[in-house]
Amino acid sequence: MDLYYPPLPECVAYLAAHWRDLGRVGSAGMGPTRLSCLEIAAWVDLTGNTLEPWEVDAVRAMSTAYLAESHEAEDPGRPAPWEPEDAEIKAAERAATAKHVRSLLRG
What we know:
By secondary structure, the chain is mainly alpha-helical. It contains four helices and two strands, in the order αββααα. The model has no long low-confidence stretch (mean pLDDT about 85).
């Protein structure tokens, strides 16, 4: 199954690529955690890439948001994070419409 990723503006796409290269999250004894500055510094040293302080902050914020969303996504009814905020309302409307159509088809 191919995953859908909304397109990113070119001016930040490189940050997303770096974040993916970093592994999106760090690891701790009790499971995933946001990327640490030490993990990022080690990646910088190994790859030769350079990051400005604001870019490190952005990558860490992306890691934090990813972890938060991964916990929220355990709810199977949760809409995809890139859907509009009214997606929950639309999902409820779709469910109500589907229920109504099923009742009509049953006679």
